[in-house]
Specification:
Low-confidence stretches: none
Mean pLDDT: 95
Bound molecules: zinc ion
Order of helices and strands: EEEHEEEEHEEEHHEHEHEHEHEHEHEHE
Largest sheet: 7 strands, mixed
Helix content: 25-40%
Distance between the termini: 16 Å
Radius of gyration: 20 Å
CATH architecture of the largest domain: Alpha-Beta Complex
CATH topology of the largest domain: Quinone Oxidoreductase, Chain A, domain 1
Cofactor: Zn(2+)
Number of helices: 11
Keywords: Metal-binding, Oxidoreductase, Zinc
Pfam family, one: ADH_zinc_N
Organism: Mycolicibacterium obuense
InterPro entries: ADH-like_C, ADH-like_N, ADH_Zn_CS, ER, GroES-like_sf, NAD(P)-bd_dom_sf, Zn_alcohol_dh
CATH superfamily of the largest domain: Medium-chain alcohol dehydrogenases, catalytic domain
Strand content: 25-35%
Amino acid sequence: MNDSMRAQRFYADTGTVVVEDVAIPIAGPGEVLVKVAFCGICHSDLSLLDGTFPAELPVITQGHEASGTIAALGPDVSGWAVGDRVVVAAGRTCGTCAKCARGDAANCLSPSIMAFGYDGGWAEYTVAQAIGLTRIPDNVSLEHAAILADAVSTPFGAVVRTANVRVGESVGVWGVGGVGTHIVQLARLVGAAPIIAVDIKPAVLDRALDLGADYAFDARDPELISKIAAATDGENLNVSFDAVGVTTTFEQALAAVAVGGKLVGVGMSADTPSLGSTSDFNFGHRQVLGHLGYHNEDIGTLATLVSRGRLDLSRSISQIVPLDDVQRGIDMLKEPEGNPIRILVKP
Ligand SMILES: [Zn+2]
Ligand SMILES: [Zn+2]
């Protein structure tokens, strides 16, 4: 193996993105070197580029949604072999905090996020903790495997863990792009009914209907909240998901929550929406819950659902760009043309 590789690098001081030759990283104890097959482009990657999320490191390789094959094993790794098809977890545990020391790595007190705290997957190779790998069944493509590391697993965490959506509950989803479409699909999978998609793009709303929504409403419709009430027999939503995270979507999603229901915030921005008066909020005994990420085991659950034909990701990959064209992929997500769900980088 050559000792250098192509990798995207983001320089925080100048705000520039380049693709250049860097040394292939070495897998340390408990780690593996993964030859990256595909790595998704996420809105949170854009948030580092535009400064919404502060840079943790002066220069970093971005991309936190990677699939590939194991190229080399570091010391003290068992149960894995060169050539195994894997998804790389988008975060690392510290291994030394009180939770990690007790074997409770899922609740690590100082986790580090891939592509923010350490180099990510927009490169030919990336180093991953063996403890964070998920094996991918042979009948699941590496394209679909890549997006299980965030674009599908973060919605899974929101629907199954944070919202704990139960069969027969009514669900609304504000913003049915990369994250929201998968929330619709997973809400359908767990038996939510009805499912209401809210967006401003007709093509995106049509797609949400194809993927399992029962209703699709325009967010700008002045009758939106009364239409949601009519669709839910006057009860409003048991669970609203805000996959956008701006003031208007958050406040609309909250306004449509039933008495005793919950709003789950998934999308993020610097906006500061209001909960309204404390009397309305408390009389309605509503809950507002922030959501982030997933548990690593959820990637394995999703791989099984895809492998067994329960979850169809055939529409989820909108485009694949070569690593040298990563800037074009970033631009396509920034100024969405053709309403992409996920764009992948192929090193
Ligand atoms: Zn992401
Ligand atoms: Zn820890």
